[in-house]
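Key result, reporting period 2: structure in, sequence out.
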């Protein structure tokens, strides 16, 4: 059953306990089977994972088994993407997992936290003053539009997630 992979990620997110390497290897070989399911079923199952208290552990496991690369390449590109010096996490993926973990455990909020910096990949520039990501929130919102056509959300949730991605740098305004 393909959704067993997501159920396992949910369990990891609930307990914080990563499964043995043999199980991870077996999961890695089964990731492509999720394509047998309607994408909205995968998103809905993953939403349960997103609400768990140790979600960052589950997300890292999903990255390890190749799920993120296969279904959310926008996030895969954030791994090892360096942010400006002085940040607690210089790597965008590490920063993203921390933001998700600290976000209120409501579906739209956690999904927006997961996807809030996907626009950093195409907007990264280097100047003599450091690394910059000008307009990454707006670019990220447009990238979300494409992503959600592939991995669809229910309309109300989709609108909330997009809003939160687009305005995540202006939290005082909403």
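The corresponding designed sequence is given below.
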């Amino acid at each position: 059953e393909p959704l067993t992979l997501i159920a396992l990620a949910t369990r990891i997110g609930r307990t914080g306990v990563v499964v043995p390497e043999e199980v991870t290897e077996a999961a890695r070989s089964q990731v492509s089977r999720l394509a047998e399911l309607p994408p909205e079923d995968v998103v809905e199952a993953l939403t349960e994972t997103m609400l768990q208290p140790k979600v960052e552990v589950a997300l890292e496991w999903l990255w390890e088994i190749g799920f993120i690369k296969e279904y959310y390449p926008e996030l895969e590109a954030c791994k090892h993407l360096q942010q400006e010096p002085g940040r607690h996490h210089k790597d965008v993926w590490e920063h993203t997992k921390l933001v998700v973990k600290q976000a209120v455990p409501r579906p739209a909020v956690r999904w927006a936290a997961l996807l809030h910096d996907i626009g950093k990949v195409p907007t990264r520039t280097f100047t003599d003053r450091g690394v910059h990501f000008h307009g990454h929130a707006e670019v990220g919102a447009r990238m979300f539009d494409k992503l959600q056509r592939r991995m669809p959300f229910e309309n109300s949730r989709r609108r909330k997630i997009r809003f939160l991605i687009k305005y995540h740098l202006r939290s005082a305004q909403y």
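The beta strands are 125-127, 130-132. The first helix runs from residue 4 to 15. This case is discussed further under Risks and Mitigation.
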